[in-house]
Amino acid sequence: MEKHLLGSFRENYFVKLISLLFIALTIWWVSIYAKGLTEGPQNNAFTLIYPFLSLLGGMIGLFVSRKWGGLKSMLGKSISMFSFGLLAQFFGQAMYAYYIYVADIAVPYPSWEDLGYFGSVIFYILGAVYLIKVVGFKFSFKSIKGKMLSFFIPLIMLEISYIFFLQGYTYDLSNKLKLFLDFGYPLGQAIYVSIAILAYWMSRNFLGGLLRRPLRLIIGVLIFQYLCDFTFLYQASRGTWYVGGINDFMYSVSYFAMTLSLIYIGSIFKKIKES
């Protein structure tokens, strides 16, 4: 049955559409990287076009969620929240393009674009919460295992954030928004990654374990999104970030992978419903 599901997933029209766009963008970015370009028309065009992956992915995700009742069902809510997260990323990217190309601000952080970027963190948390409800997780603080999971997983994520991105951080109390975002991003991402890991752990016996593969993909995407955001923070703080660089390509990968994971979950539940 799992092979049949994978075959149906690969034949999905949306998979083909988003894959062709991503392949074209990847070839484009590799040519930029091979030439060693750090600025210019090719970099600018790539930066302006690749965010449409998140717009397309968000629209596809909402279409998939409608098949499962949209906001009326738990699975529909989960897919919808992840889709809204992709759309929030597109808003952030659009504002980021405005600041760079209209307002002529090289590294716009913090700014209105963070309304979209940080908004996506909130939506991803909600998506993970609804997903964990889909697999029947009932958290109890009376459970020792529950206490350990709820404490140690976020702690590990925050420790990784501190070691790689915030060690030696200079506190600037005059810029409270930047201070909030610098610590709000890792905290929020630690939360949604933690919840997704719990959902994966709980899904091992749910529907014969059919959700384990798409949940692995979602967990991987959320962790990668975490790396994208903090690569930006790291490079921006050290003045090494540039338009059309590795960080922009990383975001394109995360948008593509998130879209695939939402389509994959929808295809699995579709086949389960049909059978």
How would you characterize this protein structure?
This protein has 10 helices and no strands. With 275 residues, the protein is mostly helical. It has one domain (2-274). It is globular, with a radius of gyration of 19 Å. It starts with a helix and ends with a helix.
Based on CA atoms alone, the radius of gyration comes out at 19 Å
Biggest beta-sheet profile? none
How many individual domains? 1
Total strand segments: 0
Which oligomerization state do the chains in this entry correspond to? single chain
- Helix-strand pattern: HHHHHHHHHH
General shape? globular
Put simply, the count of helices is: 10
> Kindly state the mean pLDDT as a whole number?
80
**Which percent band covers the strand fraction?**
under 5%
Quickly give the structural class: mainly alpha
Low-confidence stretches: 1-7
Helix content: over 70%
How far apart the termini lie comes to: 10 Å
Helices and strands in order, then pairings?
Blueprint: H1 2-10, H2 13-34, H3 41-49, H4 52-66, H5 74-101, H6 113-134, H7 144-166, H8 176-202, H9 212-238, H10 246-274
Helix pairs in contact: 1-10, 2-4, 2-10, 4-5, 4-10, 5-6, 5-10, 6-8, 7-8, 8-9, 9-10
Concise overview:
With 275 residues, the protein is mostly helical. The protein is 77% helix and 0% strand. Mean pLDDT is 80; it is low at 1-7.
List descriptors.
single chain; 275 residues; mainly alpha
